[in-house]
Design a protein that fits this description.
This protein has 283 residues and is α+β, with helices and mostly antiparallel strands. The chain contains five helices and 13 strands.
Length: 283
């Protein structure tokens, strides 16, 4: 038996977007959770930028088989997880530190499946491309790697079945008055190199679409790759015929700009990531 996971940044979810009304917020909440209920089968949901008070009634009524937990950071937009398989959930405050502004804690959901533990860390990392923002993301990744070491010690002599997923905001770095800018592709390459080191033995899992974020047709910025899943080498994922292990759902599946724009307006400018864990090396 396998278990499935969905990771999705539904920006400003449950909060009014610029020029929006309370009725529009309620309609969007209905659309998003109806989409998850009807089209996305997952044992674990991780949803980012959530106003918990606004979505409480909907998740309780529409997902009676799930338990839910939300982070409690300094801002209104938090990480919400729902799970219908045995799991132990803890808030990781180290990811809310390292910057003067408000940052979200991480959520560590340890799923217990067929006698093995799968600790899954869901993160929404610091946005923007200024050097300070890149530095904060670097700090947050270092905290994730430190957590892996702690989990490895707890499972010694074997290593943990560690998974990290979420909106990593791999936006690169803009160094003003300098030729030392870091492109988005360079930050993603660094992400791969860092987690695949001999100390971490993890890898960024391939996706069915490269870009996961776009403001839609007419925007000044092209589609970019911000959302990722990284997992220990010992963890096996279900693959498609091309070897992809993470399914990208939403606007990247649409075939016309009209349909892409409609999906973004109805749901989010972030695509949803879905993956299925099929097992791990025997401990």
């Amino acid at each position: 038996m396998a278990f499935s996971v969905a990771s999705w940044n539904v920006e400003f979810f449950g909060s009014r977007r610029k020029g929006g009304s309370h009725a529009e917020v309620a309609d969007r909440i209905d659309r998003v959770f109806d989409y998850l209920k009807d089209e996305i089968d997952a044992d674990v949901f991780a949803i980012y930028e959530v106003n918990g008070r606004s979505v409480f009634d909907k998740v309780i009524s529409d997902f009676p088989d799930y338990s839910w937990q939300i982070t409690e950071g300094g801002g209104a937009q938090q990480i919400l997880v729902g799970f219908r398989i045995p799991a132990f959930v803890s808030q990781r405050l180290e990811f809310s530190k390292g910057f003067a502004g408000l940052l979200r804690p991480g959520l560590l959901v340890t799923a217990i499946h067929e006698g093995q533990n799968y600790p899954m860390l869901f993160l929404h990392l610091k946005s923007a491309d200024h050097p300070v923002d890149f530095g904060v993301r670097t700090y947050q990744h270092e905290r994730a790697r430190s957590l892996r070491k702690a989990l490895d010690r707890a499972t010694a002599p074997e290593r943990s079945n560690f998974i990290v997923a979420g909106d990593f905001n791999t936006l690169g770095m803009d160094v003003t008055f300098s030729d030392s800018d870091l492109a988005i592709a360079d930050e993603i390459a660094r992400l791969n190199n860092m987690y695949s080191s001999r100390h971490d033995q993890m890898r960024v899992r391939p996706k069915t679409a490269e870009a996961t974020f776009w403001n839609g047709p007419g925007s000044s910025s092209p589609p970019v790759d911000l959302d990722h899943v990284v997992a220990a080498n010992r963890v096996a994922f279900e693959q498609d015929q091309d070897g992809n292990e993470v399914e990208v759902k939403g606007w990247p599946e649409a075939t016309t700009d009209v349909d892409r724009k409609a999906w973004i307006n109805d749901f989010s400018d972030h695509a949803l990531l879905r993956f299925t864990v099929t097992g791990a090396e025997e401990a």
